[in-house]
Amino acid sequence: MLFYKVSLENTGRKLSGIKFVNIYPVIMCGGVGSRLWPTSKASSPKQFVDLLGKKSLFQETALRVSQIDGFARLIVVTGTIHARSVASQLFDLNIQADLLLEPEGRDSAPAIAAASLYISERYEDGIAVVVASDHHIPSTEHFCRDIHAAAIIAAEGGIVTLGIQPNIASSAYGYIEPTDGVKILSL
């Protein structure tokens, strides 16, 4: 089991004493990417297609979370239909992972719940870093910085979501409307 010493640099947050947390990267790898048809199809969804270079978006995501010091073994939640693609693309990168296979896709909430249950049954005080398999994040350095800051908040019992502030409305995405008592950090 790997332990990660949370960096307090760049956050301004202080924890009493030294805080160690277990950080478990979880990649949600489902969907068919229908908005990118015909490049993305049910048999070969966008996360497994090379759209931006020599690696698929899934491979870029796996590399990004696997290269962060202190992260535990990767967990991938995917459908049985995609298990072979996930295993093959991870093998090409020499990355090992635990695969949680869904008999059929049920969207993000059940995938996150399954991964959370898997982590909580095996590891005490685990923190899940749940990421999508099809997001392009050009700066691993900024991603790592933000994950470190989020880990501090999560270690204190908080729930953290990272994202961008939308500039247009879209029914294709969900939105979070902060209420009183919700802290918003700009990193």
Topology:
Blueprint: E1 4-5, E2 20-29, H1 57-66, E3 74-79, H2 83-93, E4 97-102, H3 108-122, E5 126-132, H4 140-155
Parallel strand pairs: 2-3, 2-5, 3-4
Antiparallel strand pairs: 1-2
Helix pairs in contact: 1-2
What's this, in brief?
The chain is α/β, with parallel strands linked by helices and 187 residues long.
Task: Write structural notes for this entry.
The chain has 187 residues and is α/β, with parallel strands linked by helices. It has a single domain, classed as Spore Coat Polysaccharide Biosynthesis Protein SpsA, Chain A. It has four helices and five strands. Strands 1, 2, 3, 4 and 5 form a five-stranded mixed beta sheet that branches. Helix 1 crosses helix 2. It is globular and about 45 Å long. The two termini are 29 Å apart. The N terminus is likely disordered.
Please give the CATH class. Answer: Alpha Beta
- Computed structural class: alpha/beta
Strand content: 15-25%
Counted up, domains total: 1
Mean pLDDT: 75
Q: Termini, distance in Å?
A: 29 Å
CATH architecture descriptor text = Alpha-Beta Complex
Q: What is the tally of beta strands?
A: 5
CATH superfamily: Spore Coat Polysaccharide Biosynthesis Protein SpsA, Chain A
CATH third-level topology: Spore Coat Polysaccharide Biosynthesis Protein SpsA, Chain A
